[in-house]
Amino acid sequence: MMPQKETATKGLAVPSVEVLEAELKKEQYRNSYSRVLRSTVFSLLVVAAVAVLIAVLLLPVLQISGTSMTDTLQDEDIVVAVNGSKYSTGDVIAFYYNNNILIKRVIASAGDWVDIDEEGNVYVNEEQLDEPYISEKALGECNIDLPYQVPDGKCFVMGDHRAVSIDSRNTSVGCVSNDMVVGKILFRVWPLSGLGLVD
Asked: What is the pLDDT of residues 82-104, one digit of tens each?
């Protein structure tokens, strides 16, 4: 029995130092690769989460549906809005309305008096607005009593395509509360031919 045990022990090959170093390097590479992969995936997830938060909270991306803002914005244009608390006459804003997002232009702020004549000329505090962004004036779907004073905490909005836009001239939409505003439309990003600032 003793000779067989000695023969079995003599048959085992002891790895050389070079083989051990090569195996050690392979194991270190695998561990390093795994660490880098986990770190990269984690970083990508963080970047994606931050991008989603920015898109939802700070820079919402919206697609235009309808023709109430032509010629400024066309159906299916894609625009970027920026959140803010102050909006001036002439700004284009997006706001929530009946689980939808509408896009219109600010005409007047809280406390202002709005009047519109039969030809579609718009007056704010008895001064006619210069509106180079509209191609055709119209009284449109107006069923409010004019002149009209904008309530506190709200703004009066109108679409640029006055003949078809349903907006603050109609009680079905009315004035827009500040807390319903999604943001001010700043950029058009699609189509590429229309890329640029929204006036």
From this structure: 877 678 888 898 888 888 888 89
Q: What 3-state class would DSSP assign to 150?
A: coil
pLDDT in tens, 73-85: 878 888 888 877 6
Whether the CB-CB separation of 140 and 162 falls below 8 Å is answered with yes
User: In 3-state terms, what secondary structure has residue 181?
Assistant: strand
Are 105 and 91 a contacting pair, CB within 8 Å? yes
Give the whole-angstrom CA distance, residue 48 versus residue 46: 5
Closest by CA to 139, choosing from 156, 109, 103, 164, is: 164
CA 16 to centroid of chain Cα atoms: 63
* Residue 86, Cβ density class (10 Å: 0-12 exposed, 13-18 middle, ≥19 buried): exposed
- Please report the DSSP string for 69-125 in residue order: TTTTS-TT-EEEEE--S---TT-EEEEEETTEEEEEEEEEETT-EEEE-TT--EEET
**3 Cβ contact partners less than 8 Å away, ≥ 6 residues apart:** none
